[in-house]
Amino acid sequence: MDISALSNVTPAYLTGLTDTADKIGMQGKGFDSILKSIMGTVNEANITQNKAEEAQMQFELGYATNTHDLNAIQEKADIALNYTIAVRDRMLEAYKEIMNMQI
């Protein structure tokens, strides 16, 4: 295996990468914090869905007449739901992969 192309990878470069990871906050994040973050996303999606339903009821009752605002709120709720479903699918896929690992 020829590693001559990796001339720029020095200890100083690697230290810079770990410093960047520390600044971003990726060090020390466990599964618990990731799960809490995902649950926060689920809660936000739920709140967004409730706001969309409320806006639709307001429109149907005649209290709101701006269809553009209604459409924007519904689209935001749809995007949040699709994102949450994608995260759920990835988490299930990761869980299945972990369960299939040989120890």
What would you say about this model in short?
The chain is an all-alpha fold and 103 residues long.
Residue fraction in strands: under 5%
Describe the main β-sheet briefly. Answer: none
- End-to-end distance: 29 Å
The tally of helices reads 3
Based on secondary structure, the structural category is mainly alpha
Low-confidence stretches: 1-6
Mean pLDDT: 79
What spatial form do the alpha-carbon principal axes imply? elongated
Record field, number of beta strands? 0
N-to-C order of helices and strands:
HHH
Radius of gyration: 22 Å
Helical proportion?
over 70%
Could you characterize the architecture of this molecule?
The chain is mostly helical and 103 residues long. The protein has helices at residues 11-24, 31-61, 67-99. The relative contact order is 0.08.
